[in-house]
Fold this protein.
Amino acid sequence: MTARIAYRRIYEEPSPQDGRRVLVDRIWPRGMTKADARLDEWLRDVAPSTELRTWYGHDPERFAEFRRRYLAELRDAGHREAAGHLRELAAQDALTLLTATRDVDHSQAAVLAGWLAESGP
């Protein structure tokens, strides 16, 4: 059975339904203390490369291409181990992927959640 996989902003109040809370940003969120984040883990190695993140610039018109490029990055050696770890976490319990991005539906957290749900943990 696949556990629930969700994504949301790290600035939102944690919920008991979150399960494991994993930050999937490469950069620590502005204004957020580690205590306030209430994370189980910061998995920065699963985040998009700096080059891809900079190219994307959170432009919704580039999201489809960002998604395609990011999914390709998840298969490369630099991301593979972290992506596998995320799969293991998703197989164990409810998982909430956290990001500082304002538009979470056009973020790497959304891409990761969909990828995990499609391919199964």
User: Anything to note?
Assistant: The radius of gyration is 13 Å. Strands lie at 5-9, 20-23, 41-42, 95-99.
